[in-house]
Amino acid sequence: MKEDWGREAGNIISNWARKHSLWVLAYGTGCGAIEIPPTMTSRYDAERFGISGMATPRQADVLLITGYLSVKTLKRVIRSYEQMQAPKYVIGFGSCTINGGMYWDSYNTVKRLDDYLPVDVFINGCMPRPEAVIDGFVKLQELIASKKANGWIRYQENLDWYRANQKKVIKNWNMPDYNW
Amino acid sequence: MNHEEHIINTIHTTFKSAEAEIQRKGRLLIRLRSDLLPAFVSYLKNYLDFNHLVMISCVDWMEDNQFELVYHLYSYAQKVHAMVKVRLNRSQPQAQTILPFWDQAGTYEREIHEMYGVYFEGHPDLSEFILEDWDDIPPMRRDFKTREFVNENYEWRKGREDAQDVRRTISERYDEKLPQFNNDDKANG
Amino acid sequence: MTQVEKETTLYLGPQHPGITGNMMIELKVTGDTVQRAKTHVGYLHRGFEKLMEERLWMQCFPIVCRICVPEPDPNEENLARAIEEIEGREVPERAQYIRVMVLELSRIASYFLWMGGQAGSMGLYTMPQWTVGDRDYILDLFEELTGGRVYHMYIWAGGVRRDLPDGFAGRVRRVLDYLEERLTDYDRLFFQNALFLKRSQGVGVIDKDKAMEWGVVGPPLRGCGIAHDVRKDEPYEVYDKLDFEIITHEGGDIYARAMVRRREIEQSISIIRQVLDKMPGGPVHNPGPNPLKWKLPAGEAYVRTESARGEFGYYVVSDGSLKPRRIHVRGPAYVHGVSLLEKMLVGANIADVSVIMNSLGTCPPEIER
User: Fold this and answer.
1) Is the Cβ–Cβ distance between C367 and C41 less than 8 Å?
2) Which residues of chain A neighbour B146 with C-beta distances below 8 Å?
3) HEC string of C99-151?
């Protein structure tokens, strides 16, 4: 009983710490990358929420999918996501990650991001404004604090389902399999 | 005699089979047999000062069973744009590269090879350029149906067909109060 | 200790902070020097040209502006002008002036973003904070005018979507005054910065004799001292009624390209002021038929616009039906970002790769579309 209480307190503290230092992997996968500089710089200043850019996947917490994913990019994004250390969160940015958006009949972009990666928060709009981006991050912080942002656990548990979806669109799967 | 007419007369004296016309001021349209193309563009480049290769386009005329390659050349000195058109057989499209005259032509030819399946003779590297592991017919051909391809390969998200008010769905899901919009409560002012 | 002359392969991107956008460069390096470079693009391919063949003419306008993200307006302008040429539709004079104003505003916004990227690639991180923040003043103007910060869909066939709001010209003037004042700050912080001078002068040189042949356009071409600008060569809209000069700079290196852009910001500001002074009254749109039944006569047109990175061209073919037969987009980065970049990186330092990329204004979405 006492041990459980201790673990619970530890979780609350670590989640509190996590939600205030969200490091975003600097990977502009689509046109949404154009609203990231305004979000990060002087006017909207996302750093006051603890959101900051990070160059390497191994040190990043958040994978921000800025817009549509072509199949070629999806392969690299999956690789980047699997290199990230848990706990890790995915934000789908823009309408095109939700249902294809503008590119609903394009032969080269995936339509539903959550078939391939476990998405915690979607931000809709084309383009979402910087305020919307910050709002999405705040939503993610709330989910982390209430222990609902568990996409990475979902990914581990349903890895076979995700892999099957991924291999359906990526014809030539020549990537190493990570073993958590 | 202005630039355009002068250029057309020069072309007609050298290349008898080329059909050249003025489309509008500063723009020429030249139709040509495909085997003459490298000789013709090098003539335009070296003797008539068309030194800027703007782009190479390809148009699929499926009804005629032909591809049309359009070479856009521009002369900065005379401020004239020339569109050189050749037609290729659609069932076995083959053209000659113009890489020796312009380096950047290689990129355009690589893309046309990938998107239409036109083979360029003499091009050193026609490897895949934009697509990756593509095993269908080249996507820019008119007989490639992108919607059918999407239906086969990707999952749709439900809810696109029935245009219901998403605000209500969202508010029910998150137990939030439906936000009041301006046109809802005009009376409250 | 002797340097090991072993050739190593280095993959730069697609996930790399120094890369402009989403593309990859495969570098063969010995020590610190690039021996060969090969660009890999296609990460952003959406098949726009295919999609437009499946859309009505009117539905193409929301699509084309997504081709180039930092500067969407030249795309709309090109498509609108191509359609007008095929159709023979007149554009009211006021609409032409408004179009020029929008194009020049978007050019300034694009140059501000470039300044941030160029400085950031050299490690001067104050500049992005300033320029991207100042660029937002222009985006706010766009938001007021068109309803969108990034994608405007404002220019369409026959004119522009709506007239200027009340007092808009005054607000544009106020923003221009502010930006002009800020340029002196940027000079002191960046353009006269010793670090910038050291890393830009003599680096990434484009050979003047080869520049035309390689298909270089826009500021990189003018940075070689060759005076070509679509606005002067083939004046569109009302550019022939405005007073401006083609800005060139000798040298062909990163510094020359930066100076061309720096002076073009001032020039664009002066163009917009002239536009606001001369703008006549009248309608802003010459309406066409019902968009759902809108057929264009069979024909074709190639139109070009001077964007912030150079000549942006559209080749539009209509076969007389409801939908386009073919729309081919020529982005300036198509040549800059693929074949020219491969040539320019040979012999460069690894640290200069992203500086050179930024100075060419490489924009992957318009390479693969």
Assistant:
1) yes
2) 105-107
3) HHHHHHHHHHHHHHHHHHHHHHHCCCCHHHHHHHHHHHHHHHHHHHHHCCCCC
Mean pLDDT of chain B: 80
Cα separation, C214 vs C341, whole angstroms? 11
Contact at 8 Å (CB) between B81 and B26?
A: yes
Q: Given this model, what pLDDT does residue C231 score?
A: 87
Q: Is C233 on the interface with B (CB under 8 A)?
A: yes
Given a contact as 3+ CB pairs under 8 Å, which chains touch B? A, C
What pLDDT, in 10s, does the model give residues C296-313?
Answer: 888 888 998 988 888 888
H or E element in which residue B9 lies: helix B3-14
Per residue in C201-212, pLDDT (tens digit) is 888 888 888 888
Distances, alpha carbon C204 to alpha carbons A26, B123, C252, C359, in Å? 26, 28, 8, 9
pLDDT of residue C288: 77
Q: What is the pTM of this model?
A: 0.87
Rounded Cα distance between B6 and C49, Å, is 36
* Tokens 């470079």, residue located: C37
Q: Is B152 on the interface with A (CB under 8 A)?
A: no
Chain-chain contact of B55 with C339 (C-beta, under 8 angstroms): no
Chain A nearest-CA residue for B147: A105
Partner-chain residue, chosen from C14, C66, C116, that has the shortest CB–CB distance to A102:
C66
Residues of chain C with pLDDT under 50: none
- Asked, for residue A156, whether it belongs to a domain, the answer is yes
Are C333 and C364 a contacting pair, CB within 8 Å?
Answer: yes
CA distances from C283 to C91, C160, C163, C166 (A): 9, 10, 8, 15
Domains of chain C: 48-368 (1.10.645.10)
CATH number of the domain to which A160 belongs: 3.40.50.12280
Mean pLDDT calculated for residue range B71-78 = 87
E strands, B76-187, in order: 80-89, 94-96, 119-121
Backbone angles phi, psi at B31, to 5 degrees: -105, 145
**Chain C stretch 22-51, residues whose beta carbon is closer than 8 A to a beta carbon of chain A:** 22, 42-47, 50-51
Q: How confident is the model at residue B181 (pLDDT cuts 50, 70, 90)?
A: low
Neighbours of chain A (3+ CB pairs under 8 A): B, C
| Chain C residues lying within 8 Å of A66, measured CB to CB | none
CB contact under 8 A, C214 and B132: no
DSSP letters for A58-98: GG-SEEEEES--BHHHHHHHHHHHHHSPSS-EEEEESHHHH
Q: Flag whether A8 is in a domain.
A: no
The Cα of C75 is separated from the nearest Cα of chain B by a number of Å equal to: 16
Name the domain count of chain A: 1
Q: Domain B3-158 in CATH: superfamily?
A: NADH:ubiquinone oxidoreductase Nqo5 subunit (3.30.460.80)
Report helix, strand and coil shares of chain B as percent, to nearest 5.
30, 25, 45
CA distance to partner chain A, nearest, from residue C129 (Å): 5
pLDDT tens digits for A32-58? 778 888 888 888 888 888 888 888 888
**Calpha distance B155→A166 (Å, rounded):** 12
Report the DSSP pairing between strands A89-93 and A62-66.
parallel
The residues near C298 (Cβ < 8 Å, ≥ 6 apart) are: C318, C319, C320
ipTM for the whole complex: 0.85
Over range A85-108, report the average pLDDT. Answer: 85
Residue A34's domain comprises 23-169
- For testing the chain A interface, which of B114, B131, B132, B141 should be mutated: the one with the most A CBs within 10 Å? B132
